Every structure is written in C-alpha cells, then in structure tokens.
Amino acid sequence: MLEIKNLHANIDDKEILKGIDLKVNAGEVHAIMGPNGSGKSTLASVIAGKEEFEVEEGSIILEGEDLEELSPEERAHKGIFLSFQYPVEIPGVSVTNFVKTAINESRKARGLEDMPANEMLKMIREKSELLEMDRKFLSRSLNEGFSGGEKKRNEIFQMAMMEPKLAILDETDSGLDIDALRIVANGVNKLRNKDNAIVVITHYQRLLEYIVPDYVHVLYNGKIVKSGTKELALELEEKGYDWLKQEATV
Amino acid sequence: MAYTEEELKKELETKEYEYGFYTDIESDTLPKGLNEDIVIAISKKKNEPEWMTEWRLEAFRAWQEMEEPEWANVTYKKPNFQDISYYSAPNKKPKYNSLDEVDPELLDTFKKLGISIDEQKKLAGVAVDIVMDSVSVATTFKKTLAEKGIIFCSISEAIQEHPELVKKHLGTVVPKKDNFYAALNSAVFSDGSFCYIPKGVRCPMELSTYFRINQAGTGQFERTLVVADEGSYVSYLEGCTAPSRDENQLHAAVVELIAMDDAEIKYSTVQNWFPGDKEGKGGVFNFVTKRGLCEKNAKISWTQVETGSAVTWKYPSCVLKGDNSIGEFYSIAVTNNFQQADTGTKMIHLGKNTKSTIISKGISAGQSQNSYRGLVQVSSRADNARNFSQCDSLLMGNRCGAHTFPYIEVKNKSAQIEHEATTSKIGEDQIFYCNQRGIDTEKAIALIVNGFSKEVLNKLPMEFAVEAQKLLEISLEGSVG
C-alpha cells in the first residue's frame, strides 16, 4: 500500500526527517510513537503533501505510484486521508456541506457523478451513528466552537465518509476524554478492513489499547530508531523514551 | 446549490469578464457635454411636463455650484463631465405585441445576461423591467400587478402616467441638492424604475430590474423611486452587469425608498459592473446615493452584494423617522485586483423605539482597498433607539487592505449601540485542510468566502442568492496563487 524510502524532508532549510523507511501493507495498522519534536507530525504532513516541506531525498509510493509530483488534493483523491492534530475552523460552512463538497470533489476527480443526495444522507446518518454524534452537530460550522473532543470526532467522521485507502491519524487521542476516546477508537476499528491501512501517530500507549496496532515504530530525531509489535508500545509506556534516545545516540 | 459542478467548473475557467460584450444597436445619442440646453433636451426627449424640466434645471444649477466629494477612501482620476454623453436611447422604442418583433440582437444580449424574457414570463413570478441603456424596453407582468393596483414601470412612464405620485415623492428622501452626484443625477437622469404599492397590498412577486451600460462613453444615471403605501409590502431586486470598456464609465444612480406607516420594503442588489482588468485599467465608477425613509412601524432592509466597479462609493441608508421603525443593512463587498470600495450605511434614528441592524462583510483580494464607512445617529428625541453593527473583513494575500470607519453620534441617553468588528485572513492552514480533503484551492476559497458571507447571502431571495454565490466565486478567482 504505502512505501516510504529514505525520506528526507526540510522546513526552512532545517532537516526534520532524516531518512525514514516505512512499509505499510493493506489491512495493517501501524503506530508511530516518539517524543515531542521527533518529526511525527512532519511525517504526516509530508505524506499528505503539505507544500511548506521540501522533500530533499527519497520517495513516497502509494500503490506503486510515486506521489512526489502530486498536489495535496490529488493525493486525497488517491485515497490518502489525514486526521489533523489541530483541525481548522471554517466559519459559516456546515460539517455536512464541507463533507459533501469533499466527497463530490474526490468523485469528480475519479470521473464519477456527484453522490445522489439520498445516498449522501443515508451515509451521513450511518456514519454519524457509528461515532455517536448528535445530528445537530452536523449543521454547525466546521470546527467553530467545537471542543477538542468534538473536533477529533469530526475528523474521524470525515474519515468514515471519505473511506480512504490510507488514513493517518495524527494525535487523534489528544483532547479526548476516556469516553470519547472509546467512541472514536471503536469508530476507527469498525472502519478497518483488509483493503485499507491506518497509521496512528501518538504520544501515549493509551490509544493503542483501543486501536491495536500490528506494528509499532519509534521516531526519534527524524529517524525510525526502533520497530516492533504492540509490546513495544507497552515497553515505552513503562520505560519512557530515554533509553531509546541513549540507544540512538550510541 | 442549484447549479451543477460542471457549470461551476466552467464558470471558474472563465478568466475574462463574463459579460464583456457589446451590443450593436443603433442609438439615439446626445452630443457630449453638459449645460442647460442638454438638460432641457433630455427633458424634451422624454416629453416631460414643464415642472419636471424646471426640477432638473434647479438640480443642474445647484450641481454647478457643488464640488466633487473627496472624503472617501478612494483615489481615481476624476471624470471629465464635459466629455460624457448624457443621453442614449435604443433607437427603435419598441411597442411589441410579441417577442418575435423585438430586435434579435437585443434578445441575444438578454440571453448572454442569462435573462430570457420568455422564461421570465412563464417562470418564478419575477416581473422584469429591463433598463437597456437608459430606456426601458420591456415590461412584463404588468397586468398581474395592475390587478392589485401596483404600479411598476419606468420612471419616464411614471412621469407621464402618474405625475401626481412622482411630483409628490421625487426628491423627498434624496433632495436634489443632497450631494454632488445626486444633484447630477437629478439634472440628467434618463431612466430608471418607479414602483408604487397601494395601501395594504402585499406585492405577490419579487420585482426586479436589470441595469446595463451599453454605449461607449455614456454615463448612466438611473433614478429609482419605490413608494410603499401604508401597510404594504414589496421585495425589489436590482441586478447589474456591464460590458467591458477601456475608458472609465460613470454610473451615478439615485434610489429613493418610501415606506409609509406599517409598510415594508426589501431592496436587494447584486452589483457586477465591470471592475477593470487585472492591471486596474478601465472599470466603472459607481457613485450611488440610496436612501429610504421609514414612517411609523415601517421597515426597510437593504441587502447588497457588491463585486464589481473600479471605484464604488455607496451608502444605502435608512431614515427611521417614525416611531418603532426598523432599518437593516446587509452587505457583502468584494474587491479584487485594483478595485476600491468605500461602502457602508447610515442609520438615522429620529423616532422612538427605532431599531437598526448593520451586518457588513468585506472581502479584499489582490491589491484592492475595501472600506466600510457607517454612521449611526441617534437624535435627542429618539428614546430607546437600538443599533447593532457587525463589520467583518476577510483578507486574501498581503497586498490588499481592509478599513473600517464607524461613526456613532448619540444624543439620547437611552440609546443602546453595539459595534463588533473582526478581521481575518484566509490562512494557508485552512487551504491545506481543504486540499487534504480533496478540495482544490480555488474551490476551497469559494467555500471559505461563501461561509464568511453566509449571514448576508441568506438574506437574499433564493434565485438571487445562487447568482450572488457564483459572482463571489468568479470575482475572486485567481486571487490566491
């Protein structure tokens, strides 16, 4: 599904990613952990194609296609979805209107007609139930005045609507209380299938109790310094990151 | 949204001014320049009674003594008033029984404007009095309106057919000598619309007028007078498009609204005069005086979407004379490239318990300058007056400007005045967020701008709202690189 090879990326001439290799197959869930400033969010932004980052070296390949020349929206049309750590507000644009626009733009790019209104409504109903969202929520302006938890739930709602091939969840657990975390995680789990892949970026092991990863990678100082299975997350929870930092500098 | 994505895409691809075409219809044009003879000639051409000629001459004499205002936050090369032709009428004043008899080129123009009279006749209950270069050439739905006693016709026709009404009301809200451009308009106005709604009548359809400048070098001086008698209601739509021209075109209209006791007037405008090209060349100068008078318990709402003109100078205002009267102003002003707009409103509270609401949304892009200028005035007699003003500005890019000039004059202690203002910028983060969801930048801007403008767009009648939304998108295309 996704193959990242020797990825180096800069912002304002400062190197943030210093050679990342990562392979994610369909049906897998990968967790990327690491201390603050290790480059986790940068990795997410670079995969999504944010233009302020310069890719100096290496490649990102989605289903055999190099993404280098593709704009963020084209990557989205190919099935990449990023759940933002800090979702932006768009005053006056309802959640429903935004999601409708997003879906129809992607369909248009794939040469499809707009989704019929009744189908859209049905899907909205299903997916909002999946995330236990109040219907009133859907008519509110996108993220405006939303609590941290509501913003994150809204991100996952959009993911459910967009049905991406590759979803990257950037710190989706931050700002969530335990009930909201459970609902969001349940939602994500229900969206898992053999044809899609999920990359979960998180500080804490807590989210991984609910979304159980197949692989865990530790990112430190722009590099993946250790990879393992879910047990690695537990080990990190217990010991912190310092031992890895030491290992990495040795 | 009533239009398809495909249509929208096409719209967005249209880089040049959409209505930039020119119709070659023989015109009857007066020589350039302005003096008493020209004023008299205009009046003669319109076959006006003597009192009207005198009225014009008084205005002209006053105008000669006046100076062009310079306080607005705009800079432009002043028009040479002696280099303008003040009258131009389509040559064959038509009296058609059917559309087949109408000049096909004219019909074609209507088609390009998106107004099919034929359709209009059948559809939607919109009566259209189309002003084509100063003379009204088509009036529909007259019969239906006549049954209710509603008069909706060109101002020239009204001067002929209903002189008592015109004489009684013309210039009562915007006096001849009100300001430089109002005086000029009073002297030379060649056409415009007149509307009278009798006591207690609710106008059954939205009344609309399409304006259009069509002759090179002719200024257009429209005069609109809407009188809503006691307890009546009318919704009036005004939409403007103009062909692209290299030299600046002057547009100085006057609109007067009179809402008698318990009457309500809703006046909506979508203004799309040619804004000039990307280098700031050409474009219409739009110097407009719009004012409404509210008697007891009356209400006037102005809603405007301003996307066009090189220079705009416009303050639709309400004089809240009667007790319990209400004034509203909802505005979206978009400026792009080198456009300049200085627009806002005046709410003059004279009566007791009068209320006013001002919602202004300014969107600036390119190197344009967008100013809100508003006056809220509460007189000493106006007990318990209330005003709420909200001015929001949205900036796109780093080279444009948004300015707010709110004036508040309160002479009564019981008044409650609120003013809120915000300035925001379309952020790269917002754009990236949309991009990540598969929405390209052009569409993302349209989405953000429509969201920003929603409170005002919602005030427009349905068919106008769709048109306005499209206009916003067209006006801002290419504004974020």
Automatic annotation (TrEMBL), chain A:
Task: Kindly provide the name given to this protein in its UniProt entry.
Answer: Fe-S cluster assembly ATP-binding protein
Q: Enumerate the spans annotated as ABC transporter domain.
A: 2-246
User: Which GO MF terms are attached to this record?
Assistant: ATP binding; ATP hydrolysis activity
Give TM regions. none
UniProtKB keywords:
ATP-binding, Nucleotide-binding
What family name appears in the similarity comment? Belongs to the ABC transporter superfamily. Ycf16 family.
Give the Pfam families listed for this entry: ABC_tran
Q: Does the keyword DNA repair apply?
A: no
The keyword Lipid metabolism is annotated on this UniProt entry:
no
TrEMBL record, chain B:
- Give the UniProt record's GO annotations in the biological process aspect: iron-sulfur cluster assembly
Pfam family of this protein, just one? SufBD_N
InterPro entries (alphabetical): Fe-S_cluster_assembly_SufBD, SUF_FeS_clus_asmbl_SufB, SUF_FeS_clus_asmbl_SufBD_core, SUF_FeS_clus_asmbl_SufBD_sf, SufBD_N
Where is each SUF system FeS cluster assembly SufBD core domain found?
Answer: 211-452
Specify the SUF system FeS cluster assembly SufBD N-terminal domain's residue ranges.
46-203
Stated family: Belongs to the iron-sulfur cluster assembly SufBD family.
User: What is the name of this protein?
Assistant: Iron-regulated ABC transporter membrane component SufB
